[in-house]
User: Fold this.
Amino acid sequence: MNIKEVARQAKVSAGTVSNVLNKPEVVAPATRKRVLDAIAALGYVRNESARMLRAGSSRTIALVVLDIANPFFTDVARGAEGVAEAGGSQLLLCNSGQNQRREDRHLDLLEQQRVQGVLITPVDDSHNTRLDELVARGTPVVLVDRGSKRRDRCSVAVDDMLGGRLAGLHLAERGHRRVAFAGGPVSIRQVLERHDGAAKALAESGAELLLFETDSTSVADGRKAAAAIAELPATRRPTAVFCANDLVALGVLQEMTRRGVRVPQDLAIVGYDDIEFAEAAAIPLTSVRQPREQLGRTATELLLDEVASGERHKHRHIVFEPELVVRASSNHRRRTRAVT
Amino acid sequence: MNIKEVARQAKVSAGTVSNVLNKPEVVAPATRKRVLDAIAALGYVRNESARMLRAGSSRTIALVVLDIANPFFTDVARGAEGVAEAGGSQLLLCNSGQNQRREDRHLDLLEQQRVQGVLITPVDDSHNTRLDELVARGTPVVLVDRGSKRRDRCSVAVDDMLGGRLAGLHLAERGHRRVAFAGGPVSIRQVLERHDGAAKALAESGAELLLFETDSTSVADGRKAAAAIAELPATRRPTAVFCANDLVALGVLQEMTRRGVRVPQDLAIVGYDDIEFAEAAAIPLTSVRQPREQLGRTATELLLDEVASGERHKHRHIVFEPELVVRASSNHRRRTRAVT
DNA sequence: GGTGGTACTTGACACGTTTCAACGATCGGG
DNA sequence: CCCGATCGTTGAAACGTGTCAAGTACCACC
Assistant:
């Protein structure tokens, strides 16, 4: 079932059928109708491969995320979707699951499909050969949620150092002198910067930040970190926990509640991302909000601009500012004690 | 940068390059090496459009979900991913956002791309012309999380009536005589069956189920339903709430906690889906667990079988059984009172 | 030295579309 | 009655790949 069949049925040439589909205004109304009728009668569907082969590039862009089950990324995806659709491109969602091999495989297949461009949160943003090749061969790439100074690609990110600082200042202001940081691994730059931002802010008021590193940023790892914290002797126990993301924070909250620790009276908790479930937790979580949908929208706009402008496009590195949302989980003023 | 460039560089014909890529064993080792070197030197990447055009069909399958932000669907996606990858197909994730127009548009584009098949939770499963056309023209389709008796496609679903029944029996056994159902709209078959299953089970012990219909199954709507329930006069107030899904249940939990209602002592809550956040809630949610990843895996297996077997394939309708997971939010025995 | 066989390699075609130069028909103006 | 212009339509070529019949070179064997 191809364009020639339609042409035969409508008693015109293949070129005319193509014109009806792509430049209807150049075809005489009567002919156009005959062709459209034939298309409907035969149930003809365009062959995108053939169009693409002829055109040289597709009409799709891809978003490669680290973890499809993390609400942070699904919100980024929703932001990207809208812009892509408005720009006439289809958005393909791919999940690397934090696995370099799977990420590479996705990039291979996407490049073979000649996608217009790729939005990606790479597993490893410093030594990513596969990604560098992709860029070098001319596929537009925008880094999402990863700051960068590279001249050959755009990036959109959120200032993680500032996010950490906001959390640190908030906890210091509420009278906390000893705070735990739960999350990891710290080899991930995001995690490290959030930690460092908070540590610096706390140090300014003479408070300290203790690192409880986890294997990943999941609910289960949050529970583990909470157990480690709760088992410290009372005198050395932190009075607050700042978590690398909300999944970890939810794990901490759950484990602490299970152990009868009152939140926020005995322990304050601050998360990161402000996913929907942060507010919906039975003790609503204080969290550092990232403009997730905005991140997706802006990244897609940058990508589509590069696709449209080609050589004229100027690569940009956009950094958004996070925002602290104070909720019940940390909203309690601690009586300041003498430092031991 | 095409196969001919590579051929020229390696001083062979285009056909030989193609053979190196597709049937390396028929090419002499020395020639093969020359070609592979040329490919590496030029950074050649296969053109999938041309392959597909030649082959007639692609190597991708699509999963079209109702809401990418609902953890239920992301878990289904993870199940599907694994099987697709093992079968050598790439999985494309598309989001309809419960919007029929967007679903139709995705199906248009997917059919134009000649995907191998489509896994879909349709917005409307009774009068879906676009989907019927797709099937009629020969694209394999598997309905996900939607029961069906249709002879022209497979389906995988979970027994919602039974899920409702499990929740109803559990609450009746815990001594509840008046239970609320929160969720909607009831025009969605899933929601209605969960309600009916619970209503029937409760009726068997002389208890009743009051419907609090919502516009959709989101956290925000759960909060609204909770407000409506809490404002009933004490004598008519239910002692338990069964929710159409966990998002609604989290909303109910949050609003009730805010109002000082103790869960589960004053009010028991049962959710549906058993998403990760159900267990991670500060008061862990009792929930009806659906085998989400299993759903994705089985659906993909059925699809790949149809792709491979063609005419020989027998369409099947698989129904899984849900399972009640009892946690703190309902784990409290109510003192039975005389019925008023 | 010829025959048959084996091991590679080649060249041309087909897939379905878009594009574009060229062609044909129609018509108004001179 | 012819010319030029305008409007529609056509046919062929190209996009990059896979396939396959046909070809070449080499070798062993009689």
